[in-house]
Specification:
Strand content: 15-25%
Number of helices: 8
Oligomer: single chain
Distance between the termini: 81 Å
Radius of gyration: 28 Å
Shape: elongated
CATH superfamily of the largest domain: Ribonuclease H-like superfamily/Ribonuclease H
Structural class: alpha/beta
């Protein structure tokens, strides 16, 4: 071939001419992972359904596509790389998330000037983020149960589920791959109110959204 012929060829044609073996190696179409993640936020959308949609679009364009296992791996790698989290859809009044707040507050006696430390019981309905906070003298079992009674009175109803963190006043034993053991008195209270206790997973603080809930509740508490 003459130099003039080479000059008139585009990069792809040159590449195929110099490296003919590459011409027969199929290159899969990379899925739009940002689109996949946004679609998964919509109710009823599944990763399998999005893979089928991706396969259909590749087939129409006559492009090679990734099989489902590799497609899922690409998406999981994308989520880990960008540290993404999924939105959780909650039903109104379905569950109440409860815990002791890490922060405490001081209660001042106006007459004596005595300062008493107060521990904050915090509860929220995750669908509406409607919150309830109660200050206690301690975090003992009696206060824990009483706070729940006050919470139900405040919400004017009982949720189907209670989601506590793995605190000692609520959960006696909770190991990975084992059913949690609920404190006897706490379980009796749940039975009385006809609700079920489902503790958050161990070392999974996002299960009860405390990073957002604490800011939301305490900012409203001191305004």
């Amino acid at each position: 071939m003459s130099w003039v012929q080479f000059q008139t060829m585009d990069d792809r044609s040159l590449d195929e001419l110099l490296f003919p073996e590459k011409k027969y190696v199929p290159v899969q179409q990379v899925p739009d992972l940002e689109y996949v993640h946004k679609e998964l936020l919509k109710p009823g959308t599944t990763l399998k359904g999005l893979w089928e949609e991706y396969v259909m679009s590749c087939t129409d364009a006559k492009l090679p596509y990734y099989h489902r296992t590799q497609f899922n791996k690409l998406y999981n790698d994308y989520v880990k790389k960008h540290k993404l989290t999924m939105h959780i859809n909650h039903k109104p009044g379905d569950r109440a998330m409860v815990d002791w707040c890490d922060s405490t507050m001081n209660v001042y006696d106006q007459l004596t000037g005595e300062v008493t430390k107060a521990y904050l019981f915090v509860a929220t309905l995750p669908f509406s983020m409607y919150a309830y906070v109660y200050a206690c003298k301690s975090m003992k079992q009696e206060e824990w149960i009483q706070c729940h009674i006050q919470m139900y009175n405040y919400f004017d109803g009982v949720t189907r589920l209670l989601v506590p963190d793995n605190l000692k006043t609520g959960v006696t034993h909770h190991k990975k791959y084992e059913d949690p053991v609920i404190h006897k008195v706490y379980q009796e209270m749940a039975d009385y109110y006809d609700t079920s206790i489902v503790p958050a997973r161990v070392k999974r603080p996002k299960d009860i959204m405390w990073s957002f809930l604490m800011k939301y509740t305490l900012s409203g508490l001191f305004l």
